[in-house]
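Each record in this resource describes a single protein on a pair of labelled lines. With that in mind, the following record should read easily:

===
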Amino acid sequence: MSTRHLQRVIGQRGKNTLEQERENFEKTQAVAINKAINNQETPVKEKHLRNTILGTFTDHGGNLFWTITIRLPLQANPIVAWKFCQVLHKLLREGHRNVLKDSLRYKSNIIEIGKLWGHLKEGYGRLIAAYCTLVIQKMDFQKKYPEIPGNLLMDDEKYAHVCGSDVNNYFEISVDMLDYMDEILHLQEVVFGSLDKSRANSMTNSGQCRLAPLILCIQDSCQLYDYIVKSLFKLHSSLPQDTLTGHRDRFLSAYKRLKQFYYSSSNLQYFKNLVQVPGLPEEPPNFLIASDFSKHVKPVAVVPEPEPDLEPEPVEVVDLVDTAVPAPQETFRPSNFSLNGSPIVPEVDERDLLIERLTKEVRALRAELERVKAEDQRTIAALKEEISKLEKILSELRVSADKALKENNSLQKQLSEAKVLAGASVKLTEAEKQAKQNEEKFKKMKEVYNKLRDEHVTLLRTHGEVVKQQSSEKKLLEEKEQMIKELESQVHFLEKTRTSLEEQLKSTEEQKTSLESHLKQTLEEKETEHDDLTNQIATLQGEISQMMEEKQSMEQQLKSQLTNLQSELKESQESKRSLEEQLKQTIAELQQQLDQVTADYESTEKQLNSDIGNLHKKLIETSIREGKAFIQDALDQFENPSFTTVKCTAEFLLMRAEPVLASLHNLQKSVKIYGVDRTGLETFVECITGFAHHMGDCIIHGIATSHSTAQIESGEELGAVCRSTGESGLEVLTALQKGDNIKAEIDKAVHDVEELMRLADALVPKADDIKAEDMGDMVDNEMQSTTRAIEQAAARIEEMLQRTREDNTGIQLEVNARILDACTDLMKAVRILVEKSRDLQKEIIAQGRGTSSVTEFYKKNHRWTEGLLSAAKAVGWAATTLMESADKVMKGEGKLEELIVCSQEIAASTAQLVVSSRVKAQKGSKCMQKVSEASKEVSSATGKVVASVKTGSQIIEEQTLMDFSKLPLMQTKMQEMQLQVRVLELEKELEQERYKLGEIRKRHYQLAGDTEGYELHQGKR
């Protein structure tokens, strides 16, 4: 073909050829990327990854990659998003250097993909979120340190150049590398955590799809581990150890996780032929020892090169331009024109196709050349680094060998001198042995030296072969480059036509990009609106379904309650009708017989009252029996081994114990009301059942609280009080069943419940203002002051007894003398109990302290000491209060009931003292037996005081009792009404006072611990 004809053909079809070439390249890349990032749950094929990487070198960046991948369903298909992260990771490692710059523009897209899939807790959701975080971390790291290549391969000199001479740079880059390492380890933990450990996941497509990206993580982690170790050794040689504590802790944590990662990966069959997983040393490097750096070995992950594609057959390069002079007859060819004179479009020439194919080969060869250069540089850098390490080891071995030679020579000199000496045969033999050992050591070190030298020579030879191979490859590349230059000279004039096309193409692309961005923005807005509407619809549907379910359940509950109420109403109405009919019939019969037979009417009325009384009695007995069963069931939980695991807090026990006091007061009130008015049966039965349930509930939670507390003594004491509380509750119901007066039983139950609440309140954590070391002296002082208070109270009571015998006569003298005698006996019993308690306390200290001092014993058992202090203080205060109350009664200023309360308070205080002593007393202690006997005497004396007060009160009331036998009917009725009004007023006042008492007791329980500690602390001062 002539030159003019070639130019004419190029002028007609040059634009189409360049455009077709670009389209073919884009199609090839689109096919490779779509095959690499597909929705099949299989690992990405290496050839598609390689084609994508070569495409970045041809395109000089990643714009084409992002143009194609941005249209993929990354937010719709999890497998596509997972493979996208892997391909992007691979491009950042091995692609063109401009891939990072082009990818940073799409950083927000990667973050959004990670956030979107992070909401999916199953499948690939958490994996994609972790991988996106890792990719962002890698991009930030490469952006911050652009001198470090994407595959992190560089020699020590380049790394030192990156960090510079400032130690702060090492500090900062080590932190960034640790962050990078943390993201890699987090990703592998998420991947391994998502696999089913019951089967071989690495041999399934789904398992391989998840495990494939870990090869890149292994390659990155090897380099990061090496640089982190070198940086930390550098930092420890320049900075104090304390400053780098955080670095060491983070490195040790990453070391353990990385070692486990390598171990888990090396056991996978899938990785056997894909990567040679390195191993880490058994122990992490000790950065505090500088010489430990010589033991550091860089982990190298060897990835075998994939089998190369078959090279295309060499194409014979022919002359594209015919330089011969054309013949005159060929200047005009009729076949080039149609019959009407219009030119015919020439057919595609083979030379045009040849130009196109050669251009493609040129670009492919350029990409392959850059890839081969990069791989050679990596191999040479790795070999240089290995050679430098071996040279370091070799130099160290040379130094040690020289040292061993010097030692051997010195020992030989000593040996020769020892042989000269006649009397030093023993030293001679020892020197010979040592010389032999040194010779053996020298031989071993020589063998190691020879071995390392051979390895060094082998590596040098390998390096030489690599250099030779590289030189041969360079020759081939030079030949190819020469061919490329020749082709470029021929294609150069084609590029001139390309510029005009590119200008038109740029304008078209700008319009296209603007339209695409507008369309993309519109689609994103529509998608966000659609997602918002979908989420709102889903939430509304969920709320509607939940409300419908709640409505149905409430309707069912209301229907069941309504049916139950209707049935109960019918039953009550029927029973009411039957009772009304019976009553009406009875009333009619009685009205007919009223005038005639009054005696029959009275007998019938008595019979009716007895029947009603029997019914009431049966109902009350049934409720009492059920209540006793409920309380007994609660007490039986002491023997239930499975109940020991149940736990409860002291605060919750206090909440459950407060209703018990209210139920006791209500029960006592209802008993009085029912004794006056039988119509209060319903309230009476409700009070019985309520008391039983509250008491049982309190006991159950008390047992659970005794199991929960870490204070064994307090727990045992609380358990004992719970048992006594339950028994007092049973006594209340038993007395109620017998029809006796239940005031004493209720008072005892109230006291037990209050004691339980006090113990529970003591278990609530409080601030302690008293030092445990000072409690020993305070216990002795408090016991002595208690004894003095009891003796003073006894002496005062004796004085009051003498005074009342002088001032009073008759019944008043008898009542006062009986009460004061009982109080005197009580004081004597209390004094004996305190003395026995002091003896028991001394025995406990002598047996429990061992070789330690008394102060150390009190310090060790400070809680028991606090309880003993509290009990002793309470006994002294109660004795003083009893004496003051007795004085007021003798003077006529007080009430007899005050003596009952004070005596009961003394009994409770002494019981607390006995319990505090029993906690530490040994089993079978004679002193403890004496204390128990003295406690029984105190209880007996308390009962005598109560009996004396009640007897005296009864005698006085009998004197002041009015004679109602002579009152007429109207005055009797008026007196009855006045008394009923008075009774109601007194009951109201009683209820108010009980409420006040309850509130005061609550406040007392809340402040008792702190107030007592404060008073003791002030007393110590």
